[in-house]
Amino acid sequence: MNRHTLPRALFWILVAGAGPAFAGSALPPLRAQLVDDATLSEVSGKFYGANMLVGLRIDLVSTLHNAQGGTAHATGTLQVVPDGNGGYLVQVHSESGSGAGSGLAPAGGQQAGGGEHLQVQGIGQIAQIAGDGNRLGNITSISFTPAAGAGGTFNGLASSASTAGPMTASISFDPALGASLSITGPGALLSQHIGGDAANGSIRQLGQIAGDNVTGHNQLRLQLFTAAMPDSWQQHLGIKQALAGMDGVGR
């Protein structure tokens, strides 16, 4: 656990987007609240009683299963919350695992590729599938949550990797590159990334399957923690804005 100011690598998440982790298990139910463009266009300025953004939490989970019995999973959590002393408490958890299965390559000449070279701004979800009986899911959820709900247990590992035969899984949280998760197997690739791979940063999920009876899932949950702005802060901002407005008054 590190106590320091909000890292620059986390700040781009706020700009762009806006407990042990559980091997092989799903995150809590993901919910998304849809907001239309008309509503968003009217959101601006400050108002009394406004909430302020004070932290964030990222949960990443990916799993892959193929017909040959191969499995791989990776999961990670990064949480940034105020430490009560004017700084931020950064907590991290990463975990991965894999099983080789028979190690056989998928039958047939199916191919699925190209999506790994795409760059996106905002949120990008890419699915490329060739073959029969495959299932692939990309799920992203972004929510605003009261800071009081932050919690969990963390192992302090910023990266984890696992290899078993042709199955590999890895996840890392890098201060310069962002959060990256990758799972590979015969004829399959899953990846998730949050970071600055485009001008304004991005959240990207990719799934590629070239085979039969392969199941892959990507889940990403981004929570932005909010708290009520103290009266003293609002008063300070009001005075500052009033003084700034007086700069244009002629003397």
From TrEMBL:
Superkingdom, natural source: Bacteria
This protein's UniProt keywords: Signal
Record carries keyword Signal: yes
Signal peptide span: 1-23
Protein name per the record: CHRD domain-containing protein
Native source organism of the sequence: Novilysobacter luteus
